[in-house]
Every structure is written in C-alpha cells, then in structure tokens.
Amino acid sequence: MTIYDFNVLKTNGERFPLYEFEGSPVLIMNTASKCKFTPQFDDMQKLYEQYQADGLKVIGFPCNQFAEQEPGTNAEAESFCQINYGVKFPIFAKVDVNGEQAHPLFDYLKKAAPFQGFDESDINAKLLKMMVSEKAPEWLVGDAIKWNFTKFLVDQQGRVVRRFEPTDSIDSIKSSIQELLQ
After folding, report:
1. Helices (H) and strands (E) in the chain, counts
2. What's the CA gap between 156 and 174, in Å, rounded?
3. Is 16 a domain residue?
4. Would you say residue 55 has pLDDT above 90?
5. Band (139; pLDDT cuts 50, 70, 90)
6. Residue 42: which CATH number?
7. What CA–CA distance (Å, rounded) separates 98 from 79?
8. Is there a contact between 124 and 39 (Cβ–Cβ < 8 Å)?
9. Residue 67's pLDDT is what?
10. From residue 84, how far is each of 12, 93, 150 by CA, in Å?
11. Which of 107, 117, 157, 163 is 20 to 30 Å apart from 2, CA to CA?
12. d(C-alpha 94, C-alpha 32), whole Å
C-alpha cells in the first residue's frame, strides 16, 4: 500500500486521486488557522518554493480536532492560507486525522510512521506534551497525531519515510527532503 491508493477531496468537493503525485516526494500535513504552529505555513511555503523544481509536493489538510483551531469552511481555510501566508501549495478539504472518523489516508500515515515520543530535551516538545495532556489527553496514547502541523514525508514511490512532529525543526525536514532528492 502507498499514498497512491487514496483519494482526497479538494476544497470545492472534487475528488483528487493521490496517484497524480506519483514520482514526486510529498510532504503531507494537518493544518489549522488558529494554532500556535500556524506560522509554520511560512516555512512550508519556503520549502515548497525551494524544492518545487525538483518535484517536491507539499499538501495541507485543515483539521478542527485540536481545540477547534480550524472552525471555518474548506474555502475559508484555503483562503486564510493564501492571504495570510502566501501559500501556493494545495490545501485540501478538512479532515479528521484521529478517531473513528479519521480519513483513511491519515490512518495509513500513522501506521506507516508511528509516533516516536516527545523529545523531552526540547522545551517546545515539553510544552506541546503538556498542552495535549490538558486539551486532548485521548491523543497522548499510541500513534495518534498529537496536534496540528504533524508532517509525513513520502518518497517518490508513495511510501512514508518519516514523521515530523509539530515541534521538529525545519532543518530536519529540509535535510530529509534533500536526502530523498539525491
């Protein structure tokens, strides 16, 4: 199984088969417009611009499961990203990433790249763990996505190669992308 086995919805409700990304590395993330990590849209857009010519695709899926930080419509979420952060990569329709209503793509991603734990030496990771404990303790267990801006890097064959937590550095993401492109 690969990400090419899944279909997602565009913000207009149109079905989009992920096999259209075949042959390209893809960075997939769940997003929110009212989150502490929302400024990461800047970094993701920069990565997209830097590696787009090499085939990198970056795609976002708004999610309202974490403290209701994406309350708007699909169109509002997409527009927010474009207006406030100049996002040019695709933003798809809102999804759930955990629980019984989780989109099958995210169930696959979580199984392919399980949660590796919080980096207790990183203050931001410690703060994230505390926030999850307070606001969504049900996501602390297992491979659940812990918060918005969890990212999954997929290789050119559609296989998940790495999971990045919201507190992981842009440099670690960048170096993983560079390895894939070599």
Report:
1. 5, 6
2. 16
3. no
4. yes
5. confident
6. 3.40.30.10
7. 24
8. no
9. 87
10. 20, 18, 20
11. 117
12. 9
Q: How many domains does the chain have?
A: 1
**C-beta separation of 147 from 135 below 8 A:** no
Residue 106 lies in a domain: yes
CA distances from 7 to 40, 45, 106, 122, 131 (A): 25, 23, 12, 36, 32
Tell me the C-alpha distance between 170 and 144, whole Å: 22
Tell me which amino acid residue 156 is.
Q
Tokens representing residue 180 in the block: 């894939």
> Residue 165 — pLDDT band, cuts 50, 70, 90?
very high
Residues tagged active-site: 35
Q: Looking at the domain assignment, is residue 6 inside a domain?
A: no
Cα–Cα dist 31/72, whole Å:
12
Give pLDDT tens digits for 140-162: 888 999 999 999 999 999 999 99
pLDDT, one tens digit per residue, over 70-123 is: 999 999 999 999 999 999 999 999 999 999 999 999 999 999 999 988 888 889
What range does the domain containing 157 cover? 24-181
Residue 81 lies in a domain: yes
DSSP, collapsed to helix, strand or coil, labels residue 27 as strand
8 A C-beta contact, residue 31 and residue 60: yes
